[in-house]
Amino acid sequence: MEDIRKLKKFWSKKNVLITGHTGFKGTWLSIILTYLNSRVSGYSLKPKKNSLFNKSMILQKLKSNTYGDINNLTNLKKKIRDCKPEIIFHLAAQPLVIESYKDPIKTFNTNIIGTANLLESIRNIKSIKSVIIITTDKVYKIKKNNKLYKELDQLGGFDPYSTSKVGTEIVVESYIKSFFKNSNLKNRISTVRAGNVIGGGDFSTNRLFPDIISVINNKKKLKIRNPNHIRPWQHVLDPLMGYLILAKKQYINKVDNKEHAWNFGPHKGNFKKVIDIVKFIKSSQKFEYILTKNNINYKETEILKLNSLKAKKKLDWTSKWNLSESIIKTLEWNENIKNGVPAKDMCERQFLMYINKN
């Protein structure tokens, strides 16, 4: 893993475009890259009022900011032409499983066509040297043996969100083989699949940690839908560091990228049931919870586990914070914000803690 000096040496003054920069992951990435002195441009829908993007006031640190829909090909093309990015992180997406059941067409359009729009927009932009497209750990066809999924395992999904992200993967592969095989972007476009990320500033609905933080702050009861579902929990900084390392190696053309998909999942000890997470937090925080019946119309994958050996071997990347550290850092972030510490400062502080951990 790289230290802060090496990170700043590479990322300083790089022109970086982040789609979906107003989302949870996108804001963390924007904060990190502006801290590393990158020239960050953003293209995204307007953030919700109660968002990390607004709380961090990162907008004033950006080189440029555009509120736009990834489905608007004309506007997206213009943005990319104007900001002349060297590196692109594509995070713009409809990221929630339950929301995908409520509005599947929006989910398919945003996640599949939106990605196609991005790839179409960059075909003739010579400045671009590295593209990272964020998908999800939910793209794999689930087997009954509860295996750890590798990048070349069969893809498949049943809920609209998972299926849309499989579609994203297929679109990326098609564009790579059809248009980028003999271009300056050969071996410089990747899809990345991370586990269930946690961290300060996630205010999404129907997600475990934001729900827990909310009930702690508002002294309400937590409703748990799927207590026995297992996820590869990890702090948001783990996959983001993976994305940064991969983006740099693609930029300098020092990565074997014939197979363009990468897993960035946690250690095996982080594969835990939802109820285990709740009980761990309850040991230090006061809140009550109740088990509720899951809506049978909103079925979710029960067990997800990732094998990230490829990233460890080829990128020298590894998950740094174990589950207890990740949870504690998330709770500490929340406590510090309540006590008046600026959100951007807390993100930068935890980023430095992460980088400096051996």
The ordered string of helix (H) and strand (E) elements is HEHEHEHEHHEHEEHEEHEEHEHHH
Instruction: Please tally the β strands and state the result.
Output: 12
Q: The biggest beta sheet, please?
A: 7 strands, parallel
The residue ranges in which pLDDT falls below 50 over 5 or more consecutive positions are: none
* Spatial strand order of the main sheet: 3-2-1-4-5-6-10
- Beta-strand share of residues: 15-25%
What structural category arises from helix and sheet content?
A: alpha/beta
Mean pLDDT: 92
Q: Characterize the overall form.
A: globular
- Give the C-alpha Rg: 19 Å
Helix content, binned percent: 40-55%
C-alpha end-to-end distance: 9 Å
Number of helical segments? 13
Provide an overview of this structure.
- By secondary structure, this protein is of the alpha/beta class.
- Helices cover 43% and strands 15% of the residues.
- It is built from 13 helices and twelve strands.
- It has helices at 4-11, 24-35, 52-56, 73-83, 97-102, 104-121, 160-180, 208-218, 237-251, 274-282, 309-315, 323-338, 343-356, and strands at residues 15-19, 39-44, 64-67, 87-90, 130-134, 189-194, 196-198, 221-224, 230-235, 261-264, 271-273, 288-291.
- Strands 3-2-1-4-5-6-10 form a seven-stranded parallel β-sheet, sandwiched between helices. Strands 7-9-11 form a three-stranded mixed β-sheet, sandwiched between helices. Strands 8-12 form a two-stranded parallel ribbon.
- Helix 2 (24-35) packs across helix 13 (343-356) and helix 4 packs parallel to helix 6 (104-121).
- The radius of gyration is 19 Å and the shape is globular.
